[in-house]
Design goal:
Blueprint (H helix, E strand, L loop, with lengths): L2 E8 L3 E3 L11 H13 L5 E6 L2 E6 L1 H9 L4 E7 L5 H12 L7 H15 L3 H7 L4 H10 L4 H8 L5 H8 L4 H13 L4 H9 L16 E6 L5 E6 L4 H16 L8 H10 L3
């Protein structure tokens, strides 16, 4: 990555670029940063790229907004010498923010998902370019498949990415909601949640349909032989229809001197 020397650029020419954060929180740490900038200025220049007549921030959004709060009119910047694509700019922003505590799990998940959906990168490619594991990328992006009400809990930090992922792989909505309530309330540990999420939910009484009992009827034949018929529904009209169909199939097998077991095997081989 080629960087030109540090320059000072007026704030009117600076614009927020693609960033992984959903927003810049004006919390105590932000106010402390703004107070520090008001006294000593910005110690680490912003990384920017030139687009038309303005400069888009690649890294340093929080310092930029804190500087605005501190009343700065000019900002020290390092200009990216080579042009960056949107994907490359987001990649740089994500990598630079990966180890920062103020980047939430939700924002990290959205960043991975944005790289995958907007720029067509696979989970493996996202992992390679952001220097993380493919399993981690998959865990974060899978968490985003939660239903809206649980997704909001993840966004607000009520659910960790680990809990959100485990809930996302639960297919039963009622079980999913019940586990989410326990996870948010803190009454279930991470290991307990993983165990419960992997347990198969037995079918409810409404979805569990009893199988009709199988009946067996023995029909006596001449010379001491008999014919056994098994099935869930044994009606005479259906049986006669099937016997006629079976007789037609057997007639084409050259039945002279053929054992019945051999005929049955040949019918089975033909799908009869």
């Amino acid at each position: 990555m080629s960087i030109e020397s540090v320059q000072r650029i007026h704030r009117d020419k600076l614009r927020p670029g693609i960033q992984p954060r959903e927003d810049i929180k004006r919390d105590d740490s932000f106010l402390a940063l703004a107070s520090s900038i008001a006294v000593v200025g910005i110690l680490y220049p912003l990384l920017v790229r030139a687009v038309d007549a303005v400069f888009l921030i690649v890294d340093g959004h929080r310092r930029f907004f804190a500087g605005l709060s501190a009343g700065l009119s000019e900002f020290p910047v390092m200009l990216q010498a080579a042009s960056l694509s949107d994907a490359e700019a987001l990649q740089l922003a994500l990598i630079s923010n990966t180890h920062r505590e103020d980047l939430s799990a939700w924002e990290r998940a959205c960043s991975y998902n944005r790289l995958a959906t907007e720029f067509g990168w696979s989970a493996a490619e996202v992992a390679r370019r952001t220097a993380t594991s493919e399993a981690s990328v998959s865990r974060y992006t899978t968490a985003l498949t939660l239903p809206p009400e649980l997704l909001d809990q993840f966004r607000r930090g009520k659910l960790s990415v680990s809990a959100a992922y485990q809930l996302a792989i639960v297919r039963d909505p009622e079980k999913q909601r019940s586990l989410a309530e326990a996870a948010v309330a803190g009454t279930m540990s991470r290991d307990q949640l993983i165990k419960k999420a992997k347990e198969r939910t037995p079918p409810s009484a409404e979805t569990r349909k009893p199988r009709p009992p199988v009946r067996r009827v023995v029909l006596p034949l001449r010379e001491g032989n008999s014919l056994a018929v098994s099935g869930a529904a044994l009606r005479l009209d259906a049986f006669l229809s099937r016997v006629q169909e079976l007789a037609s199939q057997l007639a084409v097998l050259e039945p002279k001197d053929m054992e019945l077991s051999d005929a049955a095997a040949r019918l089975a081989a033909q799908g009869g």
